[in-house]
Design brief:
Layout (H helix, E strand, L loop, with lengths): L3 H13 L2 H7 L4 H15 L4 E2 L6 E2 L1 H28 L4 E7 L5 H14 L3 E5 L7 H6 L5 E4 L8 E15 L13 H4 L3 E4 L8 H7 L8 E4 L3 H9 L5 E4 H9 L4 E4 L8 E10 L6 H16 L7
Parallel strand pairs: 3-4, 3-5, 7-8
Antiparallel strand pairs: 1-2, 5-11, 6-9, 6-10, 6-11
Length: 306
């Protein structure tokens, strides 16, 4: 019966041209190679190679078997490699979800680095902002959740990525830029420009307005960060964004930011977390991403110093 070892032997004979050299390459004896050829010739009842020539020449049947070897053996090797990666957790799928609308600014470069180390891992994103993301994570609807509000759930862990400051974003000509102090009541007289997400997921709503039992005068939403910045820069309203988002546009001179010190002298500080199921952290490809997050966390600097 034709076996993979026969095909490998034929390839070695073609490459090296003699039984002795092919045997050395395959860690076999020349008699073992000869025995394999006799098995094939007995099975097909025809000569496979001409042993008397130097280098060895293949018969028509031998050439057909070589073509089969060239077609099959690479696929066998590829499948074996895939199985090895599966067994050792080097391939799989990570589906991301985020409660942070602007997190893609720093997450996408991180994912590009990760792909270089784990090219066989499929990366995907949940569609939109979920109503109960922590419970969906627990029930494996996705695999990693970016959030600033961890919840204690069985089988779910949270890794602190970094601390950030949520800053008030203003047009360069807004009176708040030069004001000595800004109260929550002052903020409530303004139009708030923000992302179209539940108000409890917005830092300024959840930690400034709602605890004070106040609401902005009006709320206007947009999906795009650049559009949000343009609206603020045009004096259409105010906003509050994470420091890594504000810094880029403030450096360009488009807007001005201020600390939300109506809460504390340190402003509104939050910690961003990566939530995941405990069962996943021992998978090589998943722990690899967590290690990359940890490295990113230690390298990230604070844009606005106290």
């Amino acid at each position: 019966m034709l076996e993979l070892r026969h095909l490998r032997t034929l390839q070695a004979l073609r490459e090296h041209g003699s039984l002795a050299t092919a045997a050395t390459n395959l860690n076999l004896t020349p008699s073992a190679i000869s025995h394999q050829l006799k098995e094939l010739e007995h099975w097909y009842d025809i000569e496979i190679v001409n042993r008397r020539t130097r280098p060895i020449q293949f018969s028509t049947v031998g050439l057909r078997l070589l073509k089969l070897a060239d077609d099959i053996l690479p696929q066998v090797q590829l499948t074996q490699s895939d199985i090895t990666r599966l067994v050792h957790g080097q391939t799989g799928r990570i589906i991301f979800s985020s409660e942070c609308h602007s997190c893609f600014d720093w997450l996408m470069p991180l994912l590009n680095q990760y792909r270089q180390q784990y090219p066989d891992v499929d990366l995907d994103f949940a569609s939109g902002f979920e109503v109960n993301p922590h419970e969906l994570l627990q029930h494996a609807e996705f695999d990693l959740l970016i959030t600033a509000d961890p919840i204690t759930l069985k089988g779910v862990e949270y890794f602190p990525i970094f601390q950030y400051e949520s800053r008030l974003v203003l047009a360069n000509t807004h009176p708040f830029v030069r004001a000595k102090s800004i109260s929550i009541e002052d903020l409530a007289e303004e139009m708030l420009i923000t992302y179209p997400v539940d108000k409890h997921r917005l830092d300024i709503m959840a930690h400034v307005f709602i605890p004070a039992n106040l609401q902005p005068k009006q709320i206007r939403t947009t999906e795009l960060t650049q559009m949000l910045i343009q609206l603020v820069a045009s004096g259409r309203g105010i906003s509050a964004l994470p420091d890594w988002v504000v810094y880029e546009y403030e450096q360009k001179g488009w807007v001005t930011s201020r600390r939300l010190d109506c809460l504390t002298p340190q402003g509104l500080r939050r910690t961003l977390y990566a939530g995941f199921r405990s069962e996943d952290k021992n998978k090589d490809y998943f722990s690899g991403f967590l290690k990359q997050l940890q490295k990113f966390s230690t390298q990230r600097h604070t844009y606005y110093q106290d």
